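To whoever is on call:

I kicked off a structure prediction for a single chain this morning and the downstream step that reads the tokens threw a length-mismatch warning. I double-checked the sequence; it's 87 residues and nothing unusual in it as far as I can see. Pasting both halves so you can look.
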Amino acid sequence: MRGVMKKRLFKLALLVAVIAGLAKFIEAQKAAWTGLTEPELRDKLHTKLDDKIPSEKVDEIGDKVVEEMRKRGMVGEEAAEEDTVGA
């Protein structure tokens, strides 16, 4: 009976460790993408997806990703070059 409990406890600990690892990975990915400007987002998407799907589809996906990230407030602000040049 004791061996069964040890196995269950080990499996539970392993499950918790996997979930914690996944949570850390997801948080790191979210942090890597949050705050990027629109051109940076599109470049990153092209880099990741260009060899896997056609370029037109990457552009379409990029539009949807940027739109959704904008809704969530995750897109960084681009520096307005006109403001800095005139100053």
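Update from on-call: the warning came from a stale cache, not from the record. Cleared it. Sanity check on the structure: Helices lie at 2-33, 38-49, 55-71, 81-86.
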